[in-house]
Design brief:
By secondary structure, the chain is α/β, with parallel strands linked by helices. The protein has helices at residues 3-6, 20-32, 82-96, 115-129, 131-134, 148-162, 185-189, 198-209, 243-255, 279-295, and strands at 42-49, 55-62, 68-72, 99-103, 141-146, 170-174, 232-239, 260-269.
């Protein structure tokens, strides 16, 4: 474990996913304690995307930005919202110079799969259809997210390919949860890792899938064909149950002819990039933003 991160582990009380309502409350309390981000170099606007049902979004527009990312927050598909994601969405917009469209998708277990994916896909279509209004280049639209949000980003890319939806320039997948089967070495063995462990992963999948069997749109690792997908940046954390499925997805994308940048961060754990005082977290966050900036450059 990275020593700067290890010092924070006693302060990280685990979130109990067996009680989603309490999990959301505790997570919101933690997020509210984070210092407000500097948004002086961008415009921030709340909008509603017309869909069934409508989807709330928060748009971050750095001055002069022409590329955009449909951004999907983490939280196991169970917790997180526009407010808890505000510091991260603002940081990504600022560091990447990209318009960030943060999506307030519906949460499980009240709204199991495919509700969140439907929301994400609706926002992708809206973004492409409103490019002129948003002041962005429709040829420079990415999808991205953390954890469960990265699952949704990968699934959105699959769905857009299959349904001939809007062109996606790039997918940014950070510590993605891609495989409900939990058969990889890291998924089986990381039973006591900080913040997120095997039991919490299993609970998140139970909530997200509900009574439905997993499909490739629910668990992108199940997709048999990964050809024709957008180039990807995939980041994995060493002590994360999702680690091996992320690395394997990157390998399979490469074998399908998709360009991939893969970064496995040593000494880190799931979500540890939130400890922004650590040098490795600063590198992680700069790399995420840099990959997005490079991918959406003219």
């Amino acid at each position: 474990m990275d020593p700067e991160l290890e010092a924070f582990i006693p302060l990280l009380a685990p979130i109990d996913l067996s009680d989603p309502v309490s999990a959301r409350k505790h997570f919101a309390e933690r997020a509210a304690a984070v210092p407000a981000p500097d948004t002086s170099r961008m415009e921030v606007e709340d909008r509603t995307v017309s869909a069934d049902p409508d989807v709330p979004v928060r748009i971050y527009r750095p001055h002069g930005a022409q590329g955009a990312v449909v951004w999907l927050h983490g939280g196991g598909g169970v917790f997180g919202d526009l407010d808890t994601e505000h510091p991260w969405a603002a940081r990504i917009a600022d560091l990447s110079g990209t318009v960030v469209i943060s999506v307030g998708y519906r949460l499980a277990p009240e709204h199991p799969f495919p509700a969140a994916l439907d929301d994400a896909y609706a926002v992708l279509n809206w973004t492409a259809g409103h490019a002129d209004e948003l002041g962005i280049d429709p040829a420079r639209i990415a999808v991205g997210g953390h954890s469960a949000g990265a699952n949704l980003a990968a699934a959105t890319a699959l769905r857009a390919r299959d349904e001939q939806g809007p062109a996606i320039r790039f997918q940014l997948l950070n510590q993605a949860g891609l495989d409900d089967r939990q058969e990889t070495w890291s998924a089986r063995n990381f039973t006591d890792t900080p913040w997120f462990n095997r039991d919490q992963v299993a609970a998140a999948w139970r909530h997200y899938l509900g009574s439905r069997p997993a499909t490739p749109y629910a668990a992108p690792a199940r997709a048999a064909d990964l050809s024709g997908l957008p180039p990807a940046y995939i980041a994995a954390a060493e002590f994360d149950p999702n680690r091996d499925e992320d690395i394997d997805y990157a390998r399979r994308l490469l074998q399908a002819g998709v360009s991939v940048e893969l970064h496995q961060w040593p000494g880190t754990f799931h979500g540890s990039q939130a400890i922004v005082s650590a040098e490795i977290s600063q590198r992680q966050n700069a790399e995420l933003a840099g990959a997005l900036r490079r991918a959406l450059a003219a």
